[in-house]
Specification:
The chain is α/β, with parallel strands linked by helices. The protein has twelve helices and ten strands. It folds into two domains: 162 residues, 3-Layer(aba) Sandwich (D-Maltodextrin-Binding Protein, domain 2); 117 residues, D-Maltodextrin-Binding Protein, domain 2 (3-Layer(aba) Sandwich), CATH 3.40.190. Strands 1, 2, 3, 4, 5, 6, 7, 8, 9 and 10 form a ten-stranded mixed β-sheet that branches.
Length: 325
């Protein structure tokens, strides 16, 4: 009898062991999930990260806590996420700048965008808007380029930091247009705006949603947008392609990424919840009002876009010999 009970207990234990992964998946998440934003508060990374953190936290019944980890453009925060425990409790806000541009900028990048991260999903893409300070006596990109060619090094442009998307996109434009315009890096977008509005820097190429309030208020002049098409927020502003100054276009996508080797059941849960957020009408409306193009690219579909842009932008950055300075 004792032997019979022991055997039954062993079978029950084996069944419980087999069921354990399912039970763990159902229990996930059972503590807060941190959302690493590799830029300071106030920019595109931060706004997208906070929107996703708020909506996914409400859906999953667990807090998603945003951690701003700026430094070296987007390098510090992104590397931190790459080396975080792959336990489902750390996710990264990823974009063109930290995942597609950095591989071309840094010959010894401490992470691999394709090997070290699993895409959860991409939720939105934004163009950039090139702005000039209010009292700069040029109203078109063509006039800026003509002046820069006649006066090398006299104009300057701001960015949110060396190696940021703002830096690389502008540097690519000046290289392709064959002009010398000096770079003035800042620690994030907000101090760059302060000096642009104060007339201490001439130009700034920032994400269109964060540029919009200053353009609408008349505090700056919008010269061009970086997308393939004009931005509905500012339909009167031409694309860079339309100006024929340079064959340059870029729209920066944003989404969430998990460290590689995150358990499949946790990735599946995160992707399912992300898909619900991305498809929500109020989220899409908020993204459109903010000047973005809503996306709903999950898992492999997101990976294909990331791979395409890693190859495209890393090659362009190396070809143009752009450095993080």
């Amino acid at each position: 009898m004792q032997r019979h009970l022991t055997r039954r207990q062993a079978i029950a234990g084996a069944v419980a062991t087999l069921a354990l992964p399912g039970a763990q998946a159902q229990a996930y998440p059972n503590k807060p999930i941190r959302v690493i934003v590799p830029q300071p508060p106030g920019g595109g990374f931060d706004s997208v990260g906070r929107l996703l953190a708020d909506r996914m936290g409400k859906q999953m019944g667990q807090a998603f806590v945003v951690e701003n980890r700026p430094g070296s453009g987007t390098l510090i925060g992104t590397d931190l996420a790459a080396k975080a425990a792959a336990d489902g409790y750390t996710v990264l806000v990823g974009s063109v700048s930290n995942l597609a541009i950095n591989p071309g900028l840094y010959p010894n990048l401490p992470y691999d965008s394709l090997r070290d991260f699993e895409p959860i999903g991409l939720v939105v893409s934004y163009s950039y808007t090139l702005m000039a300070r209010k009292d700069l006596p040029f109203r078109t990109l063509q006039e800026v380029i003509a002046h820069a060619k006649a006066n090398p090094g006299k104009l300057n442009y701001a960015s949110g930091g060396n190696g940021s998307g703002q830096h690389v996109l502008a540097a690519a434009l000046w290289r392709l247009a064959n002009v010398d315009i000096s770079h003035v890096p800042y620690r994030g977008a907000q101090p760059a705006y302060q000096d642009l509005l104060g007339g201490r820097v001439d130009l700034f190429f920032d994400l269109s949603p964060t540029a919009r309030p200053q353009v609408d208020a008349g505090n700056v002049h919008a010269l061009a947008v970086s997308g393939h098409e004009r931005n509905p927020m500012h339909p009167q502003v031409p694309t860079v392609l339309e100006t024929r100054v340079a064959p340059l276009e870029l729209e920066s996508w944003f989404g969430l990424f998990a460290p590689a080797k995150t358990p499949p059941e946790m990735l599946a849960r995160l992707r399912a919840e992300f898909a619900k957020v991305a498809a929500a009408p109020d989220v899409q409306e908020a993204l459109v009002k903010g000047g973005g193009k809503p996306l709903a690219l999950i898992g492999d579909d997101a990976r294909a876009v990331v791979r395409r842009d890693v190859e495209r932008w890393s090659r362009l950055v190396r070809t143009l010999n752009i450095h993080p300075e």
